[in-house]
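Minutes, project huddle
Topic: does the predicted pose make sense with magnesium ion bound?
PN asked that the exact inputs be recorded in the minutes so nobody has to dig through chat later. Recorded below.
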Amino acid sequence: MVELRMTSPLALSGVNFAYGEGELRRPVLRDVELSVGAGEIVLLTGPSGSGKTTLLTLIGALRAMQEGSCVVLGKELNGATERDRVRLRRRIGFIFQNHNLLGFLTARQNVAMTLELDRSVSEAERLDRAAQMLGAVGLADHVDKPPSKLFGGQRQRVAVARALVGSPGIVLADEPTAALDKASGQEVVHLLRDLAKSRGVAILMVTHDPRILDIADRIVSMEDGRIVEPLADGAAPR
Ligand code: ADP
Ligand code: MG
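Predicted holo structure (tokens), as shared on screen:
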């Protein structure tokens, strides 16, 4: 832990990325520089198609890097093997717009699933930790319900619990409040912020949602694959 605090959980520089090859090659990320410190919440905004999700998938080790440097939790992803990337992914919490919970599992089983890759943890302990995490997001009374028996905001809180149960060093969220009403959306991000601040987790969150900008330590914007100047002081609500 101490070791991780000394370097940024996330540091990118000179990142270029293109889809397709030859004639079809289409640059999507251009010279991206970005870092997120421990316990810091950075929001990433920008028009649709500007490359936000692509950037998140590179950082999340879900896709191989092409050019530049991307250091996540102390690991350089440029040149990393698929095996390295799989290992790193276990230390990253992912939250997507649509919670992606499995309908045939209970909330607790959905959360426990994340821990299944870790063979050192028994099933009983996994379920125990999942229940504890669900308690921390205010769902103690709902652990044995399937997603269909939960409201939208509650389902997204299950997704937050799932992202955090493995004690990730960084959380990557892609429009996590897009499908929620204002109150549920704020509840989810405030919860995320409290848990992140208390655990020193870095959060990088893509959002178009003006209702949640106040949780940000910093807001950066992307345009056509580039990080453009941060919003001027005063433009971002404190
Ligand atoms: P954003 O999340 O900001 O909307 P994306 O990263 O999803 O942007 O997309 C950036 C650009 O890359 C878009 O032009 C999109 O059409 C293109 N793109 C996204 N994913 C793929 C893919 N798997 N293959 C080819 N092009 C893609
Ligand atoms: Mg996107």
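Observations noted during the meeting:
- The mean pLDDT is 90.
- The longest helix spans residues 182-199.
No decisions taken; revisit at the next huddle.
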